[in-house]
Amino acid sequence: MQTKSEVVPKLKSEKASKEQIAEEMAKLLELKADLEGDDAKHQFVLKTAKGTRDYSPKQMAIREKVFNTIISCFKRHGAETIDTPVFELKETLTDKYGEDSKLICDLKGQGGELLSLRYDLIVSYKNTWR
């Protein structure tokens, strides 16, 4: 079943007429206005980055319980906890993945250091077990 939000992109990919696309957009905007009511004019909605999400307090309670269960099981079997940064010096990652790797995202530290976001924990595990 196709959702309303998929109609316009599908029409565009099928190279539908501008009039048909505009008509569908108008329908979507009207539906959105009906769903939101007058309060929508005063609401501010933050979008989250692709691949991320926000958790409500109820969702976090469930999430924490699941993680605590997993952590306690791992600890019963001898695992230890580590905590590592989500970024590394760029030179560390380029040595590991190569200069034109698409696995890293560059940042600039406030101190002028070139930093990169890691996509995994490989470097941290390597640093921990040296």
Description:
This protein has 5 helices and 3 strands, in the order αααβαββα. Helix 1 runs antiparallel to helix 2 (18-36). Strand 2 (105-108) and strand 3 (114-117) form a beta hairpin. It has 130 residues and is mainly alpha-helical. Strands 1-3-2 form a 3-stranded antiparallel beta sheet. It has helices at 4-13, 18-36, 57-76, 90-97, 122-128; strands at 87-89, 105-108, 114-117.
Helix content: 40-55%
What is the molecular shape? extended
- Biggest pleated-sheet summary: 3 strands, antiparallel
Mean pLDDT: 75
User: By helix and strand content, what is the structural category?
Assistant: mainly alpha
Task: Tally the beta strands.
Answer: 3
Could you tell me the strand content as a percent range? 5-15%
Question: Gap between N and C termini, in Å?
Answer: 53 Å
SSE order: HHHEHEEH
* Total DSSP helices: 5
Largest beta sheet: strand ordering: 1-3-2
Radius of gyration from the CA trace? 23 Å
Low-confidence stretches: none
